[in-house]
TrEMBL record, chain A:
Gene3D superfamilies the UniProt entry points to: P-loop containing nucleotide triphosphate hydrolases
CDD domains per UniProt: ABC_NikE_OppD_transporters
The organism's place on the tree of life at top rank: Bacteria
Location in the cell: Cell inner membrane
The organism's taxonomic lineage, starting at the top: Bacteria, Pseudomonadati, Pseudomonadota, Alphaproteobacteria, Acetobacterales
Organism whose genome encodes this protein: Belnapia arida
Similarity remark: Belongs to the ABC transporter superfamily.
PANTHER family, per the entry: DIPEPTIDE TRANSPORT ATP-BINDING PROTEIN DPPD (PTHR43297:SF2), OLIGOPEPTIDE TRANSPORT ATP-BINDING PROTEIN APPD (PTHR43297)
GO molecular function: ATP binding
Main localization, broad class: membrane
Name of the molecule in the record: ABC transporter ATP-binding protein
Cited Pfam families: ABC_tran, oligo_HPY
Automatic annotation (TrEMBL), chain B:
Location, primary (coarse class): membrane
Pfam families: ABC_tran (PF00005), oligo_HPY (PF08352)
The name this protein goes by in its record: ATP-binding cassette domain-containing protein
Family: Belongs to the ABC transporter superfamily.
Coiled coil: none
PANTHER family membership: D,D-DIPEPTIDE TRANSPORT ATP-BINDING PROTEIN DDPF-RELATED (PTHR43776:SF7), TRANSPORT ATP-BINDING PROTEIN (PTHR43776)
Membrane topology: Peripheral membrane protein
UniProt superkingdom: Bacteria
Location(s), subcellular: Cell inner membrane
Organism of derivation: Belnapia arida
Keyword set includes Chaperone: no
Lineage of the organism: Bacteria, Pseudomonadati, Pseudomonadota, Alphaproteobacteria, Acetobacterales
Length: 322, 326
């Protein structure tokens, strides 16, 4: 891989003794689409909130976050303000609550343009209109004067994407961008994100609990469990040859669209509490293939083949030099 | 064939909505002539997007709301008016499971006490033993009866909700998005549990969901709703693999699917406002196959010539020669 755009090394987050992230190593190449998959509480959102310094003060963040060689962790607010919404933009699950309900959307998009491009007045308005047009809002000129409540959920998310594009970011972090939307609208938004990436060449990190969404949008996937990345692979490879038992479990839990209907291979039990992490591999208590050695230590990620790594003692035993 | 357990005919529910402070009240037709039948031990999946009226249909079926037109018959008898003793007695035989288990449970009561509550209300005896049995039925341990909802995980809470719903041995279970608030691995557990309980107890289930995958997994039949109407109904595999209605086609092609990268049918625009129903077929403004006739005449849900699939679409029914797909 060429020089990464963003590189996280050993990123760990602790909320008053409860670890939320337990050492994340992750790199995003320029223009790449990376999917981050996992269940609620696995730390997929916290990873990027921590990387951009958006966590509350009581969170203890350690490790390293480098954006194009510049360290972001512990960087002064002025540097972070330039990065956030500038080189790295973020959109969230619930677009309606991210928009200010008392301002017209044109003004809100123009504000983003003013902050990051220094555009003012009629120039900003014209650019805002172009952005709304780019994200597929019909009749963009008139929609500039609409209030957020006049927009549907899908249109609100389009406006959020337009605001994120205002600074021409190098990386867009989309945190469950379609979870609150209907499936046909989800399809529209995923199509839009793909088209924008082709047009602008920006990198995309798509955080989702939905393996299907990630499969259709991303080139590479990282699967997270209990604050760690357990498997990382190119998207096709991950779905054909999942190596970590958790990834296998996630795929098995997805109801198939064809073939006979049989009971799903559900993963037994539930996700561990951050305050009560099991020793060793956090997945071991739910793992059907676990053995005593799994409780001994946290397994390190080992390359199964180039570009495909898994953090599982059993899956990678043969590969570890004796 | 015996009488279906549940038969709904022409269910219609209107609401009045005021636009703005001084606006004229507008009629919103949430459910607009829905007919369905459900047999013992079978599951009917009701799919559609938000605002299509699928949840309202579930509430109408249980008699939680009164239809403005049409009616529900349970075991051949018309539904008694809500609030009457006859309705209350019937409610023991029909139960509902909601999306958010934490919202459906009382946080100040142990789950054991909550599962015992319907037994008290409907005066069913031998409570401690029955509660223990119910907990075992849904895959919880009897010693967990003393736990409070916040002490349980999401999947365990939904199991407790199911145990409470099953306490009165209902013949019908209406599940409104029962797995949407759960994680993928927990969704699979709950779907397996539903199928297993149905096999054991012969419960009829109306499974309301926006998730076609989940609906296929648990249902024997599936009905697709759009703007208060059923637009297509059939076997899950038939509807999923060869949808007849253009809306069902778009819905199926929108399912994200690992490995598949074929072209989606992308719908234009958003679902229309139920207060501002398009003329003719409600789907025609977004329909890629719409004909001039579709804007004028509302298609009825009827068996398609050929395979007998029930579909409400002029094009699928061959009412007019289909225009060539662009």
């Amino acid at each position: 891989m060429s020089e990464p755009l963003v590189a996280l090394r050993g990123l760990a987050v602790d909320f008053g003794g409860a670890p939320a992230l337990r050492g994340i190593d992750l790199a995003v190449a320029p223009g790449e689409a990376l999917g981050l998959v996992g269940e609620s509480g696995c730390g997929k959102s916290v990873t990027w909130l921590a990387a951009l310094g958006l966590l509350p003060g009581r969170a203890r963040v350690t490790g390293s976050v480098r954006l194009g060689g510049e360290e972001l962790l512990g960087a002064p607010p002025a540097v972070l303000d330039r990065v956030r919404g500038g080189r790295v933009a973020m959109i969230f699950q619930d677009p309606a609550s991210s928009l200010n309900p008392v301002h017209r959307i044109g003004r809100q998009v123009a504000e983003a343009l003013g902050l990051h491009g220094g555009l003012r007045g009629a120039v900003a308005r014209a650019e805002a209109r172009r952005l709304l047009d780019q994200v597929g809002i019909p009749d963009a000129g008139r929609r500039l004067d609409a209030y957020p409540h006049e927009l549907s959920g899908g249109q609100s998310q389009r406006v959020m994407i337009a605001m994120a594009l205002a600074s021409r970011p190098e990386l867009l972090v989309a945190d469950e961008p379609t979870t609150a939307l209907d499936v046909t609208i989800q399809a529209q938004i995923l199509e839009l994100l793909g088209a924008l990436r082709r047009e602008t060449g920006m990198a995309l990190v798509l955080i989702s609990h939905d393996l299907g969404v990630v499969a259709e949008t991303c080139e590479r996937v990282a699967v997270m469990y209990a604050g760690r990345i357990v498997e990382e692979a190119p998207v096709g490879r991950l779905f054909e040859r999942p190596t970590h038992p958790y990834t296998q479990g996630l795929l098995g839990a997805l109801p198939p669209l064809d073939g006979p209907r049989r009971p799903l291979a559900a993963i037994p039990g539930g996700v561990p509490e951050p305050g009560a992490m099991p020793p060793g591999c956090a997945f071991a208590p739910r793992c059907t293939q676990a053995e005593p050695a799994c409780a001994a230590g946290v397994p390190e990620a080992v390359a199964v083949e180039p570009g495909h790594a898994a953090a599982c003692l059993r899956a990678t035993r043969d590969l570890v030099p004796a | 064939m015996t009488l279906p357990l549940l038969e709904a005919t022409g269910l219609t529910r209107h609401y009045l909505m005021r636009r703005g402070l001084f606006g004229r009240p507008v009629e919103v037709r949430a459910v607009n002539g829905v007919s369905l039948a459900l047999e013992r031990g079978r599951t009917l999946g009701l799919v559609g997007e938000s605002g299509c009226g699928k949840s309202t249909t579930g509430r109408l079926v249980l008699g939680l709301e009164r239809p403005d037109a049409g009616g529900v018959a349970f075991e051949g008898q018309p539904m008694p008016p809500p609030g009457t003793p006859a309705w209350r007695a019937l409610r023991a035989r029909m139960q509902m499971v909601f999306q958010d288990p934490l919202g459906a449970l009382d946080r100040r009561m142990s789950i054991g006490a909550q599962i015992a509550e319907p037994l008290e209300i409907h005066r069913i005896g031998d409570r401690p033993e029955r509660v223990a049995q119910l907990l075992r039925d849904v895959g919880l341990r009897p010693d967990q009866a003393g736990r409070y909802p916040h002490e349980l995980s999401g999947g365990q809470r939904q199991r407790a909700v199911l145990a409470r719903a099953l306490a009165t041995e209902p013949a019908l279970l209406v599940c409104d998005e029962p797995i949407s608030a759960l994680d993928v691995s927990i969704q699979a557990q709950v779907m397996n549990l539903l199928v297993e309980l149905q096999a054991r107890l012969s419960t009829a289930i109306l499974f309301v969901s926006h998730d076609l995958r989940a609906v296929r997994q648990v249902s024997h039949r599936v009905a697709v709703m759009y703007l208060g109407r059923i637009v297509e109904e059939g076997e899950p595999d038939a509807v999923l693999h060869d949808p007849a209605h253009p809306y069902a086609q778009a819905l199926v092609s929108a399912i994200p699917h690992p490995g598949r990268r074929q072209r989606r049918v992308l719908l234009q625009g958003d679902p229309p406002n139920p207060a501002d129903r398009p003329s003719g077929c409600a789907f025609h403004p977004r329909c890629p196959a719409a004909l001039p006739l579709c804007a004028q005449e509302d298609p009825v849900l009827k068996p398609r010539p050929g395979d007998g699939r029930r579909v409400a679409c002029h094009v699928a029914q061959g009412d007019l020669p289909a225009r060539k797909a662009a």
